[in-house]
Amino acid sequence: MIEPTQNPELWEFLGSLREGELLSGTVAAIEPFGVFVALDEGPPHPCFPGVGFLMLPELSWQRFDDASEVVQVGERVICEFLQFDTYNGEARLSLRATQPDPLQAFAERVDAGHKLTGRIALRLPFALVVEIADGVEGIVHVSELAPDRPDPETDFTVGEEITVLVAGVDRQRRAVKLSQK
Asked: Which parts of the chain sit beneath pLDDT 50?
């Protein structure tokens, strides 16, 4: 933990930031747990490669396996400030918040009952996660699978294309319910 008294300039800078503010910087390091960003404004961080930090879910609306699929060290980025992490003394950032949410656009054009073809992105014991549009995934619960293929873990493969019906879209929770029935 970094104490405010250890680096008052850093604390003053971080305390001056406001939620939603756009900050620019350079990707300083990519780690398995997130991405450090050296911000253009403000002091350097005493311990980390950058004062800004992007948690993995805040990188993109798209599914990815490695952060380097989204950003590269040395790349310039503009991110939205989310919050001041007082434990680590860093600015929590979001890159995806600067991009349109594909689920909202999807919800504008697709209603319940709409038939789609999607690609299985993930198999779970209780459901399938299906990519139904670029950056949009939905869930087919085991109770909504076709009767002739009731087990998501053995009857389906990742990457397989399947036909589904949109059962509902919850914009606020960013959830799409799908069915094969």
From this structure: none
Domain that holds residue 130: 102-179
179 within 8 A of 130, measured Cβ to Cβ: no
Number of Cβ within a 10 Å radius of residue 3: 10
Which strand (E) or helix (H) includes residue 16? helix 8-16
Domain boundary among 43, 70, 98: 98
Q: For residues 119 and 131, is the Cβ–Cβ distance under 8 A?
A: yes
Are 167 and 115 in a shared domain?
yes
Domain end marker among 47, 76, 98:
98
Q: Are 95 and 52 in contact (CB under 8 A)?
A: no
- Letter string b/e over residues 71-81, b meaning 16 or more CB atoms within 10 A of that residue's CB: beeeeebebbb
pLDDT, tens digit (0-9, with 9 covering 90-100), for 127-151 = 999 999 988 999 999 999 988 988 8
d(CA 139, CA 133) in angstroms, rounded, equals 13
* Whether the model pTM is above 0.85: no
